[in-house]
Backbone:
């Protein structure tokens, strides 16, 4: 019941009610119009009861006609209420009883509203945390890079937990030593990870704390002194592990809360939940990479087995893939194709002759020129290859390179006789790569051409066999370097981690 309502009810029974704030200013003066109160006496009652900070009802006046008590909120007086019952002393007992009930209900109302406020605050926080975890789990696509995902985690955490800086460090092997590498971060971290080994020290401390059964390392000056020595900028800190297959692979750190002095159990829970999602993501990525490597390994084994049918074409598909990638990379500098297109062109180069699996060995292995009939059989291999791969939905994007790698710019190629710009880009690129490798490889019926002679042959056939624009891009590229890559298999790729097979990365371009 509100104070005004209570005062009104009392007024109907002829009782005067005063309400004071804690500075004894009158907030409410309600009169029952039956008698005039002594305002000074009422104020004195209020003063006395306020000094006592008591919620119990005090009586004053000879006949106990003035009843007063504090309205308590959070253990202290928030206001004082005084009821003047007037000269009719017999009603003061009734008023005392009513006042007691009112005070009790008033106090309960305050407690309830505080609890509602607390719960709704906690609910809002929990909702935000849930949304963060939901956002992260919906972003857990294996085709997304680790770094994007980890950055999303840091950015989203920054929106919920008000700190100066958040970062994720992952343990990586660099030149035979394990180092913690900054993999994502937002804001300004109070730990200097560049100039000294403070991150490594923190990582060790966190592992010690975890070994003792805690869920996180937290430290601050609250409750005495810091547990550890930190750089001067650290006011408070939290570090939680990223664990994958029971192994700690990194940690998430946050420093210097903006609105509080220390990280609490809710923070520890949230940081651990987010770090777990990050670790699961990294684990999935590793599995995905294993699968990609397995798939590319199988595909390479397959094309190698086809190449091996003819001793003179050993390694041909691998080299065509590398040359196709080389041309695509140079083409991408001036035209609008991206990294994924380059990866698809590489794969179409690798698998361009996969259809030879359907060509008889007599034809494939025949030394010397093919008869017209044999040549007709051989011409089926692009369509056979495209047919095999069309069974695999993810391969659909590389089919043009396989089906059209024998189309000529002048329209005299096969299987469709497409000309000029009707030939898909992949087909044009693989055509040049395939021809260059064929010319520079020894065949049963002729010696290998020198690189220079092969390039002259390509130049002479621009506009006939080869697309002039793409041919020129190839001819103008640093062929000596390409030749070195083909001989050594070493590819210093600016976009690509050289420790991982490019083919495995390229397979990723086919998974959406
Ligand atoms: Fe071919």
Residues:
């Amino acid at each position: 019941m509100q104070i005004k309502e209570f005062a009104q009810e009392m007024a109907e029974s002829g009782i005067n009610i005063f309400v004071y704030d804690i500075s004894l200013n009158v907030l409410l003066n309600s009169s029952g119009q039956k008698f005039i109160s002594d305002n000074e006496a009422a104020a004195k009652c209020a003063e006395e009861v306020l000094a006592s900070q008591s919620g119990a009802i005090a009586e004053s006046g000879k006949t106990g006609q003035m009843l007063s008590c504090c309205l308590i909120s959070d253990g202290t007086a928030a206001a004082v209420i005084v009821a003047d019952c007037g000269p009719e002393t017999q009603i003061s007992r009734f008023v005392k009883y009513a006042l007691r009930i009112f005070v009790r209900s008033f106090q309960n109302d305050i407690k309830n509203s505080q609890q509602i406020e607390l719960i709704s605050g906690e609910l809002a926080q929990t909702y935000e945390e849930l949304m963060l975890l939901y956002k992260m789990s919906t972003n857990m696509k294996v085709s997304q890079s680790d770094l994007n995902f980890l950055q999303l985690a840091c950015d989203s955490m920054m929106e919920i937990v008000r700190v100066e800086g958040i970062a994720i460090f992952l343990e990586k092997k660099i030149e035979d030593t394990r180092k913690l590498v900054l993999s994502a971060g937002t804001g300004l971290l109070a730990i200097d990870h560049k100039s000294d080994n403070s991150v490594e020290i923190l990582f060790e401390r966190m592992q010690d704390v975890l070994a003792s059964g805690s869920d996180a390392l937290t430290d601050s000056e609250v409750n005495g002194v810091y547990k550890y020595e930190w750089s001067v900028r650290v006011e408070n800190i939290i570090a939680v592990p990223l664990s994958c297959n029971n192994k700690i692979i990194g940690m998430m750190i946050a420093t210097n809360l903006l609105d509080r002095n220390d990280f609490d159990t809710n923070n520890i829970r949230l940081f651990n939940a987010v770090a777990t999602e990050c670790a699961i993501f990294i684990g999935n990525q590793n599995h995905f990479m294993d699968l990609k490597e397995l798939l590319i390994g199988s595909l390479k084994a397959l094309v190698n087995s086809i190449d091996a049918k003819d001793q003179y074409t050993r390694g041909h598909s691998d080299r065509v893939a590398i040359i196709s990638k080389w041309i695509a990379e140079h083409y991408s500098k001036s035209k609008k194709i991206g990294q994924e297109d380059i990866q698809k062109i590489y794969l179409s180069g690798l698998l361009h002759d996969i259809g030879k699996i359907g060509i008889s060995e007599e034809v494939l292995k025949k030394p010397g020129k093919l008869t017209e009939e044999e040549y007709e059989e051989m011409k089926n291999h692009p369509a056979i290859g495209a047919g095999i791969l069309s069974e695999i939905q993810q391969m659909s994007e590389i089919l043009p390179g396989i089906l059209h790698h024998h189309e000529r710019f002048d329209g005299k190629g096969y299987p469709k006789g497409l000309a000029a710009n009707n030939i898909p880009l992949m087909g044009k690129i693989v055509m040049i790569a395939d021809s260059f490798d064929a010319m520079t490889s020894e065949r049963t019926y002729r010696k290998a051409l020198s690189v220079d002679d092969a390039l002259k042959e390509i130049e002479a056939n621009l506009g006939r066999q080869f697309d002039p624009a793409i041919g020129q891009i190839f001819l103008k590229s640093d062929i000596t370097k390409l030749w070195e890559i083909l001989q050594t298999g070493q590819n210093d790729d600016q976009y690509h981690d050289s420790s991982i097979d490019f083919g495995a990365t390229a397979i990723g371009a086919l998974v959406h």
Q: What stands out?
A: Residues 137 and 275 are 12 Å apart (CA to CA). The longest helix spans residues 92-138. Residues 3-113 form a domain with the Beta-Lactamase fold (CATH 3.30.450). The pocket of fe (ii) ion is lined by residues 352-353, 381, 405-406, 434 (CB under 6 Å).
